[in-house]
Amino acid sequence: MKSKLKIAFLTSTDPNDRKSWSGIHYKMLEGLKNHFEIVDAIGPINNVFIKALGIINRITLFIFSKRYNHRHSFFKSFLSAKIIKHRLKKQNYDFIFAPSVPAEIALLKTDIPILYTSDSSFGQLNNYYEGFTKLFDFSIKESNINQKKTIQKAAILSYSSHWAANYVNEFYKPQGKVFVNAYGANINEENINYKPKTIDKNKEIKLLFIGVEWERKGGKIIFETFLELLKNYNVKLTVCGCIPPVKHQSMTVIPFLNKNDKNDFKKFNSLMEESHFLFVPSKAECYGIVFCEASAYGVPSISRNTGGISGAVQNNINGILLEPKETFQAYVEVFHNLIENPLNYEKLSQSSRDLYLNKLNWKVWSKEISNLIINYKK
């Protein structure tokens, strides 16, 4: 039975758009609607003044080689608060669910309790992601103040990894309780073609990379590892989501796939069904929904222990995480050990699927979040 609590689903983008925050907003909205009778989308918040700040950022970067982080600005908070406050008057809401809105609720005046969720906070992103480097000093200060206001305004905070949650507890001193709730795969279970996986060193070994940013996602190590593995195995590498600066006759490039398109999803399904490994050793990553999706198909993920990846990839459960300092030789050794020990590979593949079923899916997430809201006491 659904709860009668009325939920305001607050986002700056349209959560009904399957592309909003890479589909995460859509799956969160869908999940909460299974537990509450009323879940109203407050977004999108379209404001020409806020968009103008993005233009200012590009201008300052061009002239001064410095960025202005408009996404965490006081101006954005001020304008967003006015718009949101007006929309909240349409219904007597019991709770505000605010996913990844670092500035929108910072200056919002309301007595409605807020559950804020994200995969990171500004302090972690600063000088970690390329888009958060070369910031003006005043912009760093403004962003941290705004992030702290958002965090301290929340009655409940939920993060996708311990990496994110621990940082918030230590540096932003939240007023509300902090929880870790893993995000899920942006795929419906009924659409997954799952088959138990096996591996044979004498047959073709398929590696899969999925990502838009080849460099940030560890492209150099991927290609070096691939070339080294070719010396002993019949390895094929599929690159999906970008056009890398390298080529090889045993490498297939698929520049773009839209899982919301029926034909593209069939291709995505086939890639996951055929692949033996997901290989995305990112240099910087806040979480990684793609690791959850690989687990759904029983595909072990080989990645790097940085950022919030460990929230989606558990070492020796649904993949292998190597430390950031490791070179491509260490990755070659990981692949070699699994290829040469097929029973270990099959065990890792099965536990990948099990972790998806038990944790890395939106049904589990929505149940956990709904219980936090329902059991909340002021």
How would you describe this protein?
This protein is of the alpha/beta class. It folds into 2 domains: 196 residues, Glycogen Phosphorylase B (Rossmann fold); 170 residues, Glycogen Phosphorylase B (Rossmann fold), CATH 3.40.50. A 6-stranded parallel beta sheet has the order 2-1-3-4-5-6, sandwiched between helices. A 6-stranded parallel beta sheet has the order 9-8-7-10-11-12, with helices on both faces. Strand 10, helix 9 and strand 11 form a beta-alpha-beta unit. Helix 7 packs across helix 10. The two termini are 24 Å apart. The mean pLDDT is 95. This is Glycosyl transferase family 1 domain-containing protein. It comes from Flavobacterium chungnamense. Pfam families: Glycos_transf_1. Keywords: Transferase.
Shape: globular
**Structural domains: how many:** 2
Q: How is the main sheet built?
A: 6 strands, parallel
Q: How much strand content do the residues show?
A: 15-25%
Radius of gyration: 22 Å
Order of helices and strands: EHEHHEEHHEHEEHEEHEHEEHHH
- Enumerate the spans where pLDDT stays under 50 for 5 or more consecutive residues: none
What is the name of the CATH class of the largest domain?
Answer: Alpha Beta
State the end-to-end distance: 24 Å
Structural class by secondary-structure content: alpha/beta
Q: What would CATH call the homologous superfamily of the largest domain?
A: Glycogen Phosphorylase B
User: pLDDT average, as an integer?
Assistant: 95
Strand order within the widest sheet? Answer: 2-1-3-4-5-6
